[in-house]
Design goal:
The protein has two domains: 3-125, 3-Layer(aba) Sandwich (Oxidized Rhodanese, domain 1); 154-256, Rhodanese-like domain (Oxidized Rhodanese, domain 1, 3-Layer(aba) Sandwich). It contains eleven helices and nine strands. It has helices at residues 3-6, 10-17, 37-43, 54-57, 75-81, 101-110, 154-158, 170-174, 208-214, 231-241, 252-256; strands at 7-8, 24-27, 50-51, 90-93, 116-119, 163-166, 191-192, 222-225, 247-248. The strands form two sheets. The protein has a five-stranded parallel beta sheet with strand order 1-5-4-2-3. Helix 6 crosses helix 10.
Length: 268
């Protein structure tokens, strides 16, 4: 996978929207603790973009056993509602540098949809027109599979012999704060690698050269986790832009910290 398989610039997307293979646009505005994504979508979104509810369409209901955002059991029904069809490209965006839209990118790739990209810089990079109100596309009959992207479970994370990256903020990794999960800290042996490090100030991804420098000399195969498997997908996407095929731990810290048998490390 290359950078152009993962990201599309706002300028390139405008050209594609005027061309014969108009992408399906997914608006995935969500952030931890915010519940107004749909209202912001209704106020203004990219032309013909469909709203995607991360909590109900990109995840099953939370459980202590599976974490706060378990993988969705019926992604196919959602993809059909969004109007996704075979052979038509998909572009997901948000207003936080791709950190929530990457969940849709990863899930659709995992489910066998190959032409899925993130709008680099998200809504902030878009200079074209916006439209208001709900978009309801004609439903499709697409058939999805699963397992096209690498995943690991808690047992594999516990014995991971390569690089296990923690995509959360550094203070959560160190165990200084924990706003949502039952225990503070990180999986023993993990490396702190906040996904916010991978973005420029304007919310676009760092250049390939800068990303290679950030990820230089990681030993062995790479796996990524975060709080609940959302922002870890963003880090997997960043790694994919430089040709590193990383695995995702979907349960992430929310699953790990709910299991009292799992050890917890703190500090650097």
């Amino acid at each position: 996978m290359s950078r152009y398989d993962v990201l599309v610039s706002a300028e390139a997307l405008q050209a594609e929207l005027a061309g014969p293979r108009r992408p399906v646009l997914l608006d995935v505005r969500w952030a931890l603790g915010q519940t107004d994504g749909h209202a912001r979508y209704l106020a203004g979104h990219l032309p013909d973009a469909v709203y995607v509810d991360l909590e109900t369409e990109l995840a099953d209901p939370p459980t202590g056993r599976d974490g706060r955002h378990p993988l969705p059991s019926d992604l196919q029904a959602s993809a059909r509602r969004w109007g996704i069809t075979r052979g038509r490209p998909v572009v997901a965006y948000d207003a936080v540098g791709g950190m929530s839209a990457a969940r849709a990118w990863w899930l659709l790739r995992w489910a066998g949809v190959r032409d899925v990209r993130l709008l680099d810089g998200g809504l902030g990079a878009w200079t074209g027109p916006l439209e208001a109100g709900e978009v309801t596309p004609s439903p499709s009959d697409i058939v999805l599979s699963v397992g096209e992207m690498k995943t690991i479970d808690a047992d594999a994370a516990a014995r991971w012999s390569g690089s296990l990256l923690d995509a959360r903020a550094a203070e959560r990794f160190r165990g200084e704060v924990e706003p949502v999960d039952p225990r503070a800290g990180h999986i023993p042996g993990a490396l702190s690698f906040p996904t916010a490090w991978l973005l420029e100030a304007d919310g676009t991804f760092l250049s390939a050269e800068s990303l290679r420098a950030r990820f230089a000399a990681l030993p062995g195969p790479v796996a990524v986790y975060c709080g609940s498997g959302v922002t870890a997908a963003h880090e997997v996407a960043a790694l994919a832009t430089i040709g590193i095929d990383a695995a995702l731990y979907p349960g992430s810290w929310s699953q790990w910290s709910n299991d009292p048998s799992r050890p917890v490390a703190t500090g650097e």
